[in-house]
Amino acid sequence: MIEVHELTKRYGDREAVKGISFSAARGQVLGFLGPNGAGKTTTMRMLTGFLPPSSGTARIAGFDIFTQSHEVRRRIGYLPENPPLYPDMTVRAYLTFVAKLKGVERGRVKSACEAAIERTGLGDVSGRLLAHLSKGYKQRAGLAQALIHEPEVLVLDEPTIGLDPRQIIEIRQLIKGLVSGDRTVILSTHILPEVAQVCDKVVIINSGRIACEDSIENLTRDATLEEVFLRHISADAAAEERAAHALAEAEARV
Amino acid sequence: MRNVLTIAGRELRSIFVSPIAYVVMTGFLLLGGWFFFNLLARFNLLVSMYSSFQGGAEAMQRLNVNEFVLAPLFHNLSVVLVILVPMITMRGFAEEKRAGTYELLLTSPVATWEIVLGKFVGMIAFITVMIGLTSIYGLILWAYGNPEVGIMLSGYAGLLLLAITFVTIGLFASSLTENQIIAAVTGLVMLLLLFVIAWPADSAGKTIGDVLRYVSVTEHFADLVKGVIDSKSLVYFATMIAGWLFLTQRSVESIRWR
Ligand SMILES: Nc1ncnc2c1ncn2[C@@H]1O[C@H](COP(=O)(O)OP(=O)(O)OP(=O)(O)O)[C@@H](O)[C@H]1O
Ligand SMILES: [Mg+2]
After folding, report:
1. Nearest C-alpha neighbor of B195 from the set B211, B212, B182
2. Residues of A with CB below 8 A from B110's CB?
3. Which of ligand 1's atoms lies nearest the C-alpha of A190?
């Protein structure tokens, strides 16, 4: 469903994502982990067609993210790191707008909104301005926006960031509920228990490179996810340090 | 087309719920009313002066409201538009970038030209309402005097075309930045340039002078205000509007090349 091949992103001369490849099958929930600045958001922005890759490709539902961006965007629901809300709109007006924007048929806009409101528990606040919602409810509105057109693929960038523990649990339940049947989900997060609970598969990215790609059972067979995560990001960091050291030595010799 | 209307609808709505819209509209109507009142007062003074002269009747033939009230009114309003239109257009793209909703727009299955056109349509709908409200001055003249309606309509058309052109330039400025203030200032400077670019025309030699005069908005607008509907002016406005919309589309799209 999602096949990423040698995807690279340069900002100026700084490489944020360095030729990563991974894949997710239909119906899988992929946990996308990595320390701050690893390149998670950058990767997700490329997959959703917001940023063009510098090189490499990815296919989503068989469509190339660059040459067939329009087809890809029709099939993706995306919750960016900061939920993309218009503060001056009510929840319902906002979702109606997004539904039309995502190409929901005219006659089904209303029912799609109601369904999304229902799914994300926004019923009590559907008439309120987005500016006045608490962070947890803003995040819900962001989720509602992402799934309003029943996309085949959901890309969620840190959906539980900055929420209180109760909200985290509720949003996590909500995400579990969304993961039904055929829907493929990529979820980035720093909360490892979340991954263990929700995901089938884990990809760990560290300073723009894939450090690990495996199923959750394999990874947690003889260690906790935390240990695995730390081992992979430090192993990588150590390798990079050794490489930098060797390079410096080589340069010193010249 | 549906996408364009969806985006235009949201834009118009967000303009109308923001206080900026009301401040701009009130300011525009207040200044317009002030100009109108003063121009009319001056006109009355001229009329009463001429009518007390010997042989003033002949001179009075040459006094008409189109030339003495409406034309200066349109010119004054055009200067006010230079300042106020960037206040409306500055939010356009800059605010979407700041709020992160840009990411929603660009990852939705809509084309960039639909986004640009949607914003454009929303904004000109607002500007049309604003300019439409000044038709009250025309109606007053029509009720109490005898303006030439054709010339008056041509003047309004000129004002509207001018404002639409300004919107496209303001929108382009807004697409360059995520800071509304920078967008407003850039837009304002570009509009002022468009007004004064023909200043060196008289001393610049024939060819360059003609080019500058054609590029500047002033002469085309002045023609329309005089009631001269020249196809050259219409082509000018159409080219400007299409050209700036095109550049805005390129600017929005450029995020996909970087
Ligand atoms: N627009 C940009 N211009 C230049 N550099 C950028 C830009 N966006 C991100 N970067 C850099 O690219 C790298 C990867 O950033 P990215 O936001 O993808 O990381 P992340 O994994 O999402 O981190 P976090 O967990 O903090 O959200 C970082 O070093 C960041 O500074
Ligand atoms: Mg991030």
Report:
1. B212
2. 101
3. 25
Tell me the three state secondary structure of residue A13: coil
- What residues of chain A score a pLDDT lower than 50? none
A61 in B contact zone (CB under 8 Å): no
Question: For residue range B180-223, what is the model confidence (pLDDT) as tens digits?
Answer: 999 999 999 999 999 888 888 888 888 888 888 888 888 899 99
Instruction: Give the number of the atom of ligand 1 that is nearest the alpha carbon of residue A158.
Output: 27
**Token pair listed for B117:** 């056109």
For B25-49, how does the pLDDT look when each residue is reduced to its tens digit (9 = 90+)? 999 999 999 999 999 888 888 888 8
Q: At what angle do helices B91-99 and B112-133 cross, to 10 degrees?
A: 130
Taking the CA of A40 as reference, the closest ligand is: 1
A113-169 confidence digits (pLDDT tens)? 999 999 888 999 999 999 999 988 999 999 999 999 999 999 999 988 878 888 888
DSSP secondary structure, B211-242, as one string: HHHHHSHHHHHHHHHHT---HHHHHHHHHHHH
Kindly report the pTM of this predicted structure: 0.90
Of B172, B149, B129, nearest to B16 by C-alpha is B129
Q: Please say whether the dihedral angle defined by the alpha carbons of residues B166, B169, B174 and B177, taken in this order, is positive or negative.
A: negative
CB atoms within 10 A of CB B23: 12
> Which residue bears the tokens 């390079």?
A247
Q: Write out the H or E segment, with its range, that includes residue A5.
A: strand A2-11
Give the pLDDT band of residue B56 (cuts 50, 70, 90): low
Give the Cα-Cα-Cα angle B122, B92, B22 (nearest 5 degrees). 65
**Contact at 8 Å (CB) between B77 and B159?**
yes
**Among the atoms of ligand 1, which is closest to the Cα of residue A11?**
4
Cα–Cα distance, B93 to B89 (Å, whole number) = 8
The first and second tokens of residue B197, run together, are: 């670019």
Contact A78 B6 (CB under 8 A): no
Question: In this structure, which ligand is nearest to the CA of A50?
Answer: 1
Q: Looking at ligand 1, which residue's alpha carbon is closest to its atom 12? A: A16
B101 → closest Cβ in A84, A102, A103: A84
- Judged against a pLDDT cut of 70, whether residue B161 lies above it is answered with yes
Residue minimizing CA distance to atom 31 of ligand 1: A37
